[in-house]
Amino acid sequence: MDQILGNIDLLIQFPIVNMKIIIDGVMIGALFALAAYGLALVWGVMNVKNLAQGDFVIAGGYVAWWLSRQGVHPLLGVPAAFIVMWILGWVIYKLVISRVIERDLFTSLLATFGLAIMMAQILNLMFGSDTQSIDLNYETLHFADGLIDVPMSKLIGVCMALSLAAAVIIFMKRSRMGQAIRATAQDARAARVLGIDTEKVYAFTFSLNSAICGAAGAIIVMAWVIQPFYGITYSIRAFVIVTAAGLGNLPGVITAGLGIGAAEQYGSHIFGIGYQQAIAVLLLLLVLVIRLLLQRRKRQVLQ
Amino acid sequence: MKNLAMPVLHLVLLGVIIAAPFVFPDYQTQLATLWLFIIVSLTWDMTGGQMGYNSLGNIFFYGTGMYVAAVITIGLAHNVSEYTDAAGGGIFKFTSAQYYSGVVLGSIGAGLFCALSAFIIGYVTFGLRGPYFAIGTLGVAIAAGELVSNWEWVGGGQGISMPNYPGEQERLFIYFCFAVVGVILYTFLRWLYSTRFTAAINAIRDDEEKAEAMGIHTMRYKLTAWAMSAFFVGIAGAISAFQLLHFEPLETAYQTINLGIFMVVCVLLGGKGTLWGPIIGATLFHVFKEITWNYFLGWQWVALGALIVITVVYFQEGLMGWLMAKKPEWFGIRIDSKDPASKIAEAAE
């Protein structure tokens, strides 16, 4: 208890530490938002709640990590992970997801949970259970007398995440396929009547989601660490963000993503690093309860 | 004849249950684990199959039951924080009277504590429907594991050690503890599923809004059903604590991705919403699990994950559901149209 109060006291006495925590949180939060955007896409278009989301992220990270060990430049790992995870996502769609779209929501939840266990274990068998990271050897920028340090690798990662997000958003707004995806999300039956091949749209959406996650993972492995079993917390964070922001609410997803990143950094600073995962999950429960109370006022339930 | 068949069948089964650990003495641990699977599957089906609330967090009660039993057993004899500071360490001795009172009081205490926490958690989570309920309960279980692993009073991430069984036949004792709980649970459910209570929770599963409009106090029914299932899961967790002798929060007690998901798969494999489905499913799953553990060492988790995906995607009606569609007359369902499959499908909806 004294330690917690001491940590809070530190934040009040040295406001610059707040700055550092917020910068750290926002940088990782940008990647959470990327994974959450993919989840919201799949959830909105084909009503599949993908619990394997986090494992796609981790798998993408391992693709980039493996390539960098083969001598490929780490920055090229991001597009490589995008392509590899696109193919993997397409295969998973054809084998599993295409058969659960029409079924009830618990089926998709459970099937993707099984998928998550499988992927985590395969990664564990292939690469071992140690935490892995790519060392980029870039310099670290220092601000405010060395109190705030921003590694270049993180900065590059965040810039790549931003440009990927921008590319996806422009694609969804401008391209023919993006139009078809949005039409299917609004009303799949009407889209089919108007000649859109919804099966193709679903396959494309799921592959795109998987590829976005893979690229996010490739960025994470450059600046942070990955481990085969970290997937479930990334899934939970994506769920927190989407549940808090709602579907099809892009500014909301970005705000919630950056917010959860900052909240986690604050939490682990105040309560200790051991509570970081617990805080992500407790935030989910908090968001669910708040949304529940809002619905209850209207005499509705969250479903 | 019909009236005699069921009691005879049950007596034969009881005989098999009692004889099994003596006939196969090498498999006593596996048989005890099979009972654990049966108990958690049956209790999961109480809310998942009969009430339509698919919880992914019933493992919370298992882990909580373990910790409550440990704290009661140790607390009756020693100071808990001194005990966990020494990490068990063999410094602290338990007499056999202390052990047995720990088993009895610990199990009952674990059951009651879990039932109470089901009331409290359920009051919040039962406002959530469908997938939100599943994610919310999963969140409760993961959060509990993470919090307990930071709680030094119960041993933190290192876990906690239990006293050793004072006699020789430890595995036999654990087997019969599980078996007694399992038989009581089966008898209780056989009675419960013939009462108005189950009719009410089935109505909640079929259409909650209509059930409420019919005057069923849905929240009260949902809480009672979950508390009953939590009671038995808590007891099963307590016995597991005595079986394992040492357990830690993330991998053993709140094992979300192991037992927490296995119980759901057992029920789906056997058939949701039936009494025998979870039992058959648990047996099949346990056998599959032991075989993969023995022959696919290293890949067993992949095989289990694949089994989960295949069961959920291709065979969700389960064995009992499949039988019910093939041989409806065995279940007392009379078919009068020429197309039985469509009738069953209608009835199922």
Brief rundown of the structure:
The complex is a heterodimer of chains A (303) and B (349). Chain A has 303 residues and is mostly helical. Chain A has twelve helices and two strands; from the N terminus they run αααααββααααααα.
Structure description:
The complex is a heterodimer of chains A (303) and B (349). With 303 residues, chain A is mainly alpha-helical. Chain A has a single domain, classed as Orthogonal Bundle (ABC transporter involved in vitamin B12 uptake, BtuC), CATH 1.10.3470. Chain A is built from twelve helices and two strands; from the N terminus they run H-H-H-H-H-E-E-H-H-H-H-H-H-H. Chain A has helices at 2-13, 15-46, 53-69, 74-95, 105-127, 152-174, 176-186, 188-193, 198-223, 231-245, 250-271, 276-297; strands at 140-143, 148-151. Chain A has a two-stranded antiparallel sheet. Chain A starts with a helix and ends in a 6-residue tail after the last helix. The mean pLDDT of chain A is 84. Chain B has two domains: 29-281, no CATH class; 317-349, no CATH class. Chain B is globular. Chain B has 349 residues and is mainly α. In chain B, helix 12 (259-270) crosses helix 13 (276-295). The interface between A and B is large, with 43 and 41 residues.
